[in-house]
Design brief:
mainly alpha
């Protein structure tokens, strides 16, 4: 499988359009399309950004991982649960989130109660407010909610530390 095919597989596995993903990764849709179609070769900075977004290794993206794990599309009800739990752990009310995000209070309630599903840009905004990753809200990849706030807070802190170390390493790699 080429890197372009792998990029397409990852994107389609979470049901994103090329345009939505390109916007999230801050590149032109045509550029991203070129990567997926193996017309353009992505630079290392982009590859790191993609690996971080999907929570996969560089080895996986380059086809060097021996065992590929199947990526499962998120279930709407799981996203709702993670949004609610993240808000509660941050100690915020829906009204406070509404004020911080500019999103209507009823809309936030709808997201948390599985009535409606937020788009990727909204998930990104809420993840920033809650101090969690987009991957966590969409896929629950970084940690699990164990029922104990202490366990989750510890895992959140550990994930933040790992992310900082990863960013430092990425900065060192830039030449």
């Amino acid at each position: 499988m080429s890197i372009g095919e792998r990029l397409r597989y990852l994107r389609e596995s979470i049901r994103l359009s090329q345009g939505d993903l390109a916007k999230t990764l801050n590149i032109a849709r045509t550029t991203y399309s070129g990567y997926e179609n193996d017309i353009r070769e992505p630079d290392f900075k982009f590859i790191i950004k993609v690996a971080d977004f999907y929570n996969v290794t560089l080895d996986y993206l380059f086809g060097r991982q021996l065992k590929e794990e199947k990526i499962v599309a998120p279930k709407k009800e799981e996203i709702s649960l993670r949004l609610k739990k993240s808000r509660e752990l941050k100690g915020l009310s829906q009204r406070e989130v509404s004020q911080l995000s500019g999103i209507n209070n009823k809309t936030i309630s709808g997201y948390e109660n599985n009535v409606s599903e937020p788009d990727l840009l909204t998930i990104s905004k809420l993840a920033s407010i809650y101090g969690v990753s987009i991957d966590w809200i969409i896929n629950g990849l970084h940690f699990k909610i164990e029922g104990s706030n202490g366990v989750l807070e510890e895992q959140l802190e550990h994930s933040r530390e790992l992310l900082l170390k990863f960013k430092e390493l990425a900065e060192q790699i830039k030449v």
